Amino acid sequence: MTLSSENSPPPPLSWVVTNSPFRDPGDPPAQHDDNAQNPHQDHKKLVKLISTEQCSNIIDSSLNKTGFGFYHVMITILCICSWSTDGSQPMLLSLIMPVVKDLWNLQSHHISLMVFALYFGMLVGSLLFGWLSDRFGRRKMLIVTNTGVCAAILLQSFAINVWMLIVCLLLNGFFAGGSLPLVYSYYTEFLPVKGRGFFLTCLACSWSVGELLVSGFAWAFIDRVGFRWVIRYSVWPCIVVYMILPFALTSPRFLLKRERRVKSLAVLQKLAKINCADQHSVRQLVHDEYQQHRASLGTSGGDSSEGTLSNEDSPSSAALCPEEKFDSRIMQSTETPHSSPEEETPLKDDAHVNQTYSASLPSDKEATTFLPTGVDGNNHDDSKLFQLQQSAANDDGMSADNGIVCGSSTSHDQFRYGRIMGLFLNGYWKTTFTLWALWFLASVSLYCIQVFLPEFIDKKGITIDKYPLIFLSSLGNIPGVIAAALVIDFIGRKLSLLIFCVGCAITMIPFGFFSNFWLMLTFLVLAKFFMYGAWGILDAIVPETYPTANRSVGNACANAMARIAGMVTPFLLEDALLKFDSIWPALGMASGVIFVTGIVAMNPWLPETKGKKIE
Fold first, then answer.
1. DSSP code of 415?
2. Alpha-carbon torsion (284, 289, 295, 301), positive or negative
3. Is the domain 67-258+416-601 a CATH 3.40.50.1980 member?
């Protein structure tokens, strides 16, 4: 009899349950019935037999079935507190700059160095921690960055001169910039597809929440308690993050990219339990994906498998379905262990099979060192069974080097664990450059309004209290983000970004014409309404665009472009304000740049991610 392993479908569920090498010796014998009432009880064994893409489908389906529940509320609070701390730092700097300038008799270049230090630290921190989070996990790096931000803010409040303050701002920016890409990557990987754009855009409100809390406290107490207590007040959201982090789960998509499939499914089950959803749905999804995997292979390999046996002309063999043919080949190979070499296809030796199999095992504690052992004690026959299973996996696009565990995915090989070069492979370079341009341009416009608003008011020669204007103008931030979140899933990301950028450019110009407090406040609120709505959309686009293996690095590089803009903008604005003694050059630059941002958003190189699954 001639035995061939080409185009072989995977074994039936009954054979997997009984003969799987992951089966414990003390387990009771399984029922040889593929239609049993509880076929998904061995889902940990089945998940190792399907491709990585199918495991990703299981995660998507499980998150969609689980929905937005209690756990999502908990991590939403975590992400809001983390981002509000980071978002409050640029606003905090703009509030304390006039105070320390008078207190320490600083020059304009000292102010520019303070802004430069904060954003340079954010640049380095976002790149470093974005890479580290793709290597070691989002949750671990969130603990590190939150600790660093807390310590840096407290040190900043004890600064005795401008140079100590600049060093503290550098450290503050380093850890705050590091947490920015982590938060969105972590949050994205737990959200269901439906409504993902809404929740990601709403998360941008947390930046405005931090600004409102700091500016409101400064308005009420900075004249009474001094700028140092205003700085210390901004640290309290870090305490809330510390209270929630012990209950945060590791991202299931990150675990899947690290080939820890069983652990990934365990996270999904725990997530379903916390959200009071059906925990058994995860097991059923694994079973369904495995059955679809077998059915697709059995259908595609049906024609070629009919020529794999030498006695194919017999009526009994011709009447078999692909699954039954696979079972018969398994039985015939185990019943004839001493067949002559002329009647069999040459097989690899057992040592090679065991070595390949051992290398393919995942790092989960549930299965680490098991090797195939046969029911009849014949290792040579079990190596044949394993090769039939491995051949079926290879026919489905699985890597022979990685055995039955690793699915050979192009994106997995080329986007391996935080490689910056992965942002330029498979045509991603066009999207990457477009996103970098969007973040740089939008950041220049944002920092013109956010950081130098007190300077603008001074240049206009208006004797009004700046703190009420800054606080009240921030009230337009949250409604703008909410409005963007409501439209982003209906008209798409790109068109929404265009509308908000053009709206910001139009409403920014009238601010320079008026000296009345309420008219200035009206147009400033409108400008920030559109500005922060545009930023909410940008924050949602980046994590949806890149795959899991490079999501944090993609976020980090986009944030790095924003920090570069933050470092360059102070020197441009200081030069413009001093040379022209007017706000119009700076204001015109801010309006023109945000208008160009909207035009770039319609670039065909930027994909529309509305309603699409993330990789």
1. S
2. negative
3. no
Task: Give CA–CA dist 193/191, Å, rounded.
Answer: 6
User: Which of 193-207, 336-350, 404-418, 578-592: highest mean pLDDT?
Assistant: 193-207
Phi and psi of 431, rounded to 5°?
A: -65, -40
User: How far is residue 278's CA from residue 118's CA, in Å, rounded to a whole number?
Assistant: 46
> Domain segments of the chain: what residues?
47-63+262-337+349-405, 67-258+416-601
pLDDT per residue as tens digits for the range 460-474: 666 667 777 777 877
How many whole angstroms separate alpha carbon 563 and alpha carbon 89?
Answer: 13
Please give the backbone phi and psi of residue 407, each rounded to the nearest 5 degrees, phi first: -80, 135
Q: Looking at residue 515, what is its pLDDT?
A: 74
Query: Which pLDDT does position 458 carry in this prediction?
Result: 66
Please give the C-alpha separations between residue 393 and each of 52, 385, 400, in angstroms, as whole numbers: 11, 13, 8
Question: pLDDT-derived band of residue 417, with 50, 70 and 90 as boundaries?
Answer: low
d(CA 170, CA 113): 10
Separation CA 89–CA 153 (nearest Å): 9
Handedness of CA 341, 344, 348, 349 (dihedral sign): negative
Q: How far is CA 469 from CA 99, 277, 456, 464, 476, in A?
A: 17, 47, 12, 9, 12
Instruction: Write b or e for each residue in 106-123: b if 16 or more Cβ atoms lie within 10 A of its Cβ, otherwise e.
Output: beeebbbbbbbbbbbbbb
Q: What is the mean pLDDT of the chain?
A: 72
What does the pLDDT average to over 438-443? 91
pTM exceeding the 0.85 threshold for the entire prediction: no
Compute the distance between CA of residue 148 and CA of residue 129 in angstroms, rounded to an integer: 12
